[in-house]
C-alpha cells in the first residue's frame, strides 16, 4: 500500500498544479449521473443521425445503483425535476437514482433475502457468527446445477459470512423475488409510482436507450449483438430469460453466464417498474407507448438511426402569442370556480391548458386551488381557482384576451379540457412589482421568490439548508407534530420548522492583517440561532436567540437584546431578533424582527431579508409547542451577484416560478403529510440535509463560492 504521506503529497501536487477549481467542486448525486448519461445519449443520437427522439430517455444500470432519466411527453413533473439546456434548447427532465439497486447490490439483497426465509429448515438457516455457513441456500435465480458462494456481511452486521447458493432455475419464481427487491407494492403517496413507492411520471412516447448491465444482460441471453443498437421489448427479454433459466448449468457454464438468469428477471422487474409496456413491438403499439433500445456503449460510430416518434401538436389560438420563458413584467390573473375538489392532477391539468390556450410558457404559469367546504344544500365538491400568467407588457393584452376567450367558451370545451366545468370566470392584468420574496409558513408551505408554491414534509429532527450564498448560509430544523384542523374534524401528522441557524462572515479582512487574525476574507464568523423551543406561552422569551461572534464569549438574548459583531448587528425585541449590516439583511422575528447582513469587501449596498416568525402550534396534539415561519426577500440585483441556492434560496437565481408537490388535506379523518417540494427544487430534499446546525456543506452549497456579476435567466 502506498504510504499516506506520499498519497497526500501527490494529491496536493495535483491540486496546486491543476487548473481545476477545487473550491467549486462537489460530489454529484446519482440523479445528476443520470442527467449526464441522458445528455450523452442525446449528443450521440444527434451526431449519428442528425436528430434525436423528441422525447428521449436514458437507463443506466451499474453495480451499486441504477438511474432513469427522461423528458416526459406532457412536460408535467411533480417530483425529481431538473432544468437543463442542450444545444441551446431548454428541457425539463425527470431523473431518479435508486441506490443499492445495481446489479451487485441487487444480487446481494436477493441472496440475503433467500437466507432469511422464515420457512427455511434449520439445516439451511444462517448462523450469526462470521465464517462458513452450514448447508445450501436454494435460489430460483441461478441455473440448476450451479453452486456459487458469495462473501457478504453477516446478519449480525459484524464480519463476513459465506453464503453458498444452489441453483433451481425457475424464471417465474425468480421474477417474484426480484419484484420483492424493488418493493413494487409499496404505498404510493404521490402517483404514479415506480419502484419503492417513488414518484415517476408515466413515460408515454419516450424512447429509452439502455446501456451497461442492461445491455450485457440482453446480449448474454442472445437478443442483441456486440456493437449493435436494437429495439427490444420487455416481453422478449422475459421470454429469452425464461429459456436461459431453464438450461442446466453444465450446458451454459462460463465466466459471466452465472448471473444472466437473475439479471434477466431483475431487468424485467425494473422495466415493469418504469412503466415500459411489455410488448412495444406488437400491432397494438401506438406512438404514445414507451420504447426500449439497447446500446453497447456511448460511442458515436456505433449507433443506428432509430425510428422517430412524432410529438402531438395541438393547435394554438391564433390571437395568443406563443411565448418562451420570458422576463415577466406583467401578470394576467384569471379566477374561476370548478365543480371538483382540488387535486394535484386537476391543478396540473388546469395549468397545462391555461398555458396552452393563452400562449404563455408553462414555467410562467402559476395555479392555486382551494376546495370550498361543502354544505348540506351543496353536496358536490367545488373549488376556487386562481391562475397567474406571467408575460410582458407588449403581450399582456393578447394573453388576457386569449385566456378570457377560452374560459368563456362553451361549457363542453372547458369541461373537456379541465375535466370539470367552469363558472364565474374573471380575467384581469397588472404590472409586476420588482420586489421578490420566498419562504415557508405553517407546516411548512413553501412560497418562492418569483412565484409558485410547494409543501415540505421534513424528517423529524433533521437540518435542511434553506439558503446558501457566498459567505452566508441558513439552515432550519424540522420536527414532527400532530395537530387538528377544521374544528377537530381532521387530525394531521405533519412537521414544523422549529429552529433557524445562520452562519455569516462579519467584517472585511484588510489585506495587511497578520496571518491568523481573520477568518478568510472576513474578520470573524457570526453564528446565530433562533430556537422556537425557548419561546414562552406568551410567544416571547429571554434565551431564544443564541450565538457567537468570532472567538468572543457566546451570547444569548431575547425580549430586548443588542450585540455588534464587526459590521453585523444582532438585536431583539419581544419574540423578534434583528441581524443587520451592509448588503444582505436577514430578519428572524416572532412579533418583531431580526437582521443579519454580512457583505464582501467593496460590494455595493444591497438588501436581502429573511423573516423567521415564532408562533404557537395551534390545536396541538403532540410535538413542539412553537414553530417558525420563514420568509426571504431581496432588492433588485442582489441575487444576480450571489446566485444563491438552498431549498428556497435557489428560487432567487432565476426569474421563473417554481411549482412542486403539495399535500391536499381532506375535510375530516386522519391525514399524514408527505410532499417534499418535488418538482420545485433541484434533486430531492434529502440532498439539502446537513449534519449539524451550522454545517454549510450540502450538494448545492454556494457558501464557499465567489460573488460574481451575472444576469438572471
Automatic annotation (TrEMBL):
**Pfam families in the record, alphabetically?**
GDA1_CD39
Name under which the protein is recorded = Apyrase
Keyword terms: ATP-binding, Hydrolase, Nucleotide-binding
- Superkingdom of source: Eukaryota
- Single GO MF annotation: UDP phosphatase activity
Q: Give the UniProt family note.
A: Belongs to the GDA1/CD39 NTPase family.
Checking InterPro entries in the record gives:
GDA1_CD39_NTPase
How is this protein annotated for GO cellular component? membrane
Keyword check for Acetylation, yes or no.
no
